[in-house]
What does this fold into?
Amino acid sequence: MNILKAGLGKLPIIDSELGRIYKMRSGHIIPVEQPLFLVSQISRSGGSLMAQLFDGHPECHTHPGELHIGYPKKYNWPDLDLRQKPDKWFDMLFERRLPGYAEEGFVKVPKHMRSSYSASQIRYPFLFLPRLQREIFKKCAARGINSQRDVINCYMTSYFNAWLDYQNLYRSERKCVFAFTPRLSMYEDSVERFFRDYPDGKMVTIVRDPKTWFVSFVKVKPDERGNITEAMTRWKTSARSALNNRKRWRDSIILLTFESLLQEPEPTMRYLTRALGLSFDECLLTPTFQGMSIRANSTFRVEQDGVLDAPLQRAGDLTPAEIDGIEREASELHAEVLAEIENAKHS
It folds into this structure.
């Protein structure tokens, strides 16, 4: 019997050793109720890198992949009916990638690039029990639910406790849960629901130069290369949302550039941790998973781990006509975003 798949249903646990693990973990649950610090912007802009940089931070529970508790889409912050049963809430929040990670290992390299690497280069152990997560969630919810924040706290508690080899569970100095969800920041109603649930939360938005963003974007979606206007509409939606969110939510929104993250990682991460109210730690300069060095989530093959500035050189892959089109569509808004980022740094 496939224990992982059985874990999502109601089949009994037949292995006594596994049963003892369930009993031990269920009897020693560590609550995870800290505010959520969420990275969000258009894809291909450094969100995965940021999550990997926070992997070992001693003050954070860091979700390693994209946080997919959104409903009905990952970028829709959920709006749960509190009259429903805990099983229904769990089914809506449950992240469908988890059984695959548990069976095959955690991997963050884009699907179209995975054949370029050996499994040992990109896959990492991820000991996770989905049924245990459900049981922990229900046990937590049984203590009483008064708000959607309570439900999400139960989900975070179940996630990090059912991740059996999560190395930082028992540290007592946690100040936040750190995670990345692409595109959520681009939907005003989702941002409103996020801050409804996390008035003590923060949202980090990374803005990437539209030229190098376009190169990465069309590497994933080559059919889009001939339509610069449509691609720039996506980029501009993210950039305008960043400015609007910053205007409305002020210091709860932190804006950064992708370029500063790659070219000046230490000053950028020192600025970010100050804005988040966290301590700076040297681990923030190296992307990792469970402390193990990890390859970049790049649409191009990379030959080494760490923070690399190669993505900043890829505007050279554009034709003169593409550069002109991108600058015509996005240069004014890009300059406005850069000015806001600089103003925030000096305010």
